[in-house]
Amino acid sequence: MSAWIIETDRLTKTVGGKTLVDGLNLTIGKGEVYGFLGPNGAGKTTTIRMLLGLIRPTRGKVRLFGQDLQRNRTAVLRKVGSLVEYPSYYGHLTGYENLEAVRRLLDAPKSRIDEVLGVVRLTKGAGRPVKAYSLGMKQRLGIATVLLGKPELLILDEPTNGLDPAGILEIRELIKSMARDHGMTILVSSHLLSEVDQMATRVGIIHKGKMIFQDSIQALRDRSRGRISLTVDRTEEAWKALLGSGIRAEAADGRLLVESLSDEKVAAIVRLLVRHDIAVYRIQEEKRSLEEHFLALTDGGDSL
Amino acid sequence: MIARVMAAEWLKIRKKPIWFLAVIGPAGVVGLQAANFGLRYDYLVKQYEDDLWGGLIGNVHYLAVPALLLGLALVASMLASLEHQTNAWKQTLALPVTRFAVFTAKFAILLVVLAVSCTLLAVGTAALGAGLGFGYAFPAGELLTASYLPFVAAMPFMALQIWMSVTLSNQAVPLTVGIAGTILSLYSVRMSDWFPWKWPYLINEWNDPLVSAGAGLAAGFLLYAAGLVHFARRDVK
User: Fold this and answer.
1) pTM
2) CA-CA to A249 of 20 to 30 Å: which in A134, A259, A301, B225?
């Protein structure tokens, strides 16, 4: 019995000989906000569709709340709220009626509709037909729909896609408060690291259908720590001198690159170089942003 | 669970012209026969001298079959379009409802809407006969047979149209099939008895309308089951 809320075992989906998702092991613990990252076309949506039972895996298994999805689909999905890509709605109905249609399916109490409208601050527009809504309002209605059944797990696929900055901020705050105030476990996918960076506690990066990184956001930050760049007059000698005292450096176009070190270590390096009579022109810290690191992981995000 | 899904479906078809179609279909058939009998009253009354009611019911029935076939294709497409328009299948099918319930609810709504149309047709026919002065002693059995058994015999088309409309996002395909079938049905009386488009006319060599209706019911159930299995297994875009 595992404690994972979502657990996939070598999840694979092949369509027409093309492997969209390849042996994915995705794990999400209770109360986590999991940022599911990857460039467009990496297999995020395909994975999410499999998590919701919308498409069948070619191989592998999905377990939600420790239960096999295929065997206990309806029981498990009762605890899940999902928003896949663009919001789904019935344009000819009002916002309220849209919620009522889903409420009837879920058999939730009527009072729940007003509650969720309040949460996404859509009470005022609830009486208007949804086809007249802005994209931001539609997305908020989508989130209200997700919350109707009081889910324990939210699966949100690109929830901020196509929204303006104010809309993005609003949805992000909403997601954070869901995790903080209601203890929900949340999976949110995005092709933008910056977006997930601000709400996720854990990240998974998928590229060409494969999971290439899965750990805490802190671990990702650690991996993308900066380097120290030293510009010196005789690179070769300097490199040897550093190696002589056990410091591995990387020589590149007249510069030496060393992994980010403590202040004392940097001072020791400078002293060493000076003692070897090597002129030090510049010492710079090269910060690699999380974004650059993410791009490097995903081959420069070739499809971004 | 089907009741819950159907409750949601009833809400969704509000403000859609589905009920309008359900009324306009039988109203159109009765209206055309009113014109037919009104314009050729003396000729037709002489022709059906022995059985005025039978003549009227027969005429209504022949016109009602193509209307039924066309109407069921249109309503099936409208029901499926509720989800296709904004690709709401992914939302509905990710909810804790079975695909069996979703598919069956669509089919059941189509049956209910068409059953209402058939009832209106029966009432309209009786009213027309009374209005034409055929008396009030209409042959109930004959009227109900001609109003409801074509509906039962048309089950395979309902199942097929729901199946196609729900699984194909391009509604041009099911609508074309439905319209082609409607036209085909106009010529089907001359075909052999196994031809499904002939069944709603309730004509067969045994002279028993129940044979046509029974064949429709059986084929309808098979097509419904096949559609259900396909719908339950397919990937949702």
Assistant:
1) 0.88
2) A301
